[in-house]
Amino acid sequence: QVQLVESGGGLVQAGDSLRLSCAASGRPINFYAMGWFRQAPGKERELVAAISRSGSKTYYQDSVKGRFTISRDNAKNTVSLQMNSLKPEDTAVYYCAAATSYDYGRLNYRKDEYNYWGQGTQVTVSS
Known about the structure:
Blueprint: E1 3-7, E2 10-13, E3 18-25, E4 32-39, E5 46-51, E6 58-60, E7 68-73, E8 78-83, E9 92-100, E10 116-117, E11 121-126
Parallel strand pairs: 2-11
Antiparallel strand pairs: 1-3, 3-8, 4-5, 4-9, 5-6, 7-8, 9-10, 9-11
């Protein structure tokens, strides 16, 4: 199995930028499609961005389009989420997740399609 560890969360002000990183170990991430999820208190965990196994396709939730960018470096076993123009509504615990995939171009949208999860990192945006 693969282990995932997130880093880069913190407290920022509205309009600031933050970069989250996910480091994988135990198995190369080129075996997985990857995603970033977030969960605010009292809310369901929701998909923020996803990237296919090869990196050829990406998906973004409408609320973050144009502000967030997901990327992967399979050689370094890392996945990143660059977050710009942050808003208070972005406040949540952010999770890195991996989905077993045998299709280089497949995107996964449902949380139950992801097999492995990081522990989460808190992002707080003040107004």
